[in-house]
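Quick bug: Transcriptional regulatory protein YycF output formatted oddly.
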Amino acid sequence: MRVRILIVDDERDYLALMQLNLDIEGYEVGTACTESEALASLESRRPDLILMDVDMGEESGLDITSRLKKNPETADIPLIMVTGEDSEEDRVRGFEAGADDYVTKPFELTFLLERVRAVLGGERMQAPAQS
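Here's what came back:
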C-alpha cells in the first residue's frame, strides 16, 4: 500500500510541482487549495503526511495546522510546513502550531523529498515499475 500525502497550498504552480514529483517517487498524492477542500479530503481518506502552506490568502496554514493538531482524529498525522515565510520567527510559529518540519520556498526538490522521507521515518518509497 502506497503512502498517502495531502498537499494543501493555494499556489497552483507549487501544488502541481510537488504533486508530480511525489507521484514519481511512488507516493499517492491528494491536493487541496483551501481549508474546506483539505477537510473534505481528510474525511474521505486519511493521509499519512500533510504538506501545508502558511499563507493561503484569507486562511492561515498556521491556524489550520493548530486545529488539526488539537483534533484527536488528526493530531497524530505528521505535518510539514512548506512556505515562503522564512524568518526564524515564522519557523518558530510553525513548530508552535504543531508542524513536524518546516521547508521554505523556493526549495530544491531533492531537499523536500528527503524531508518527507525523514518525517515518515526514513522509509524511501519506490516508484512503481514501468511497463
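Actually, after a second look the formatting is fine. The mean pLDDT is 90. Closing.
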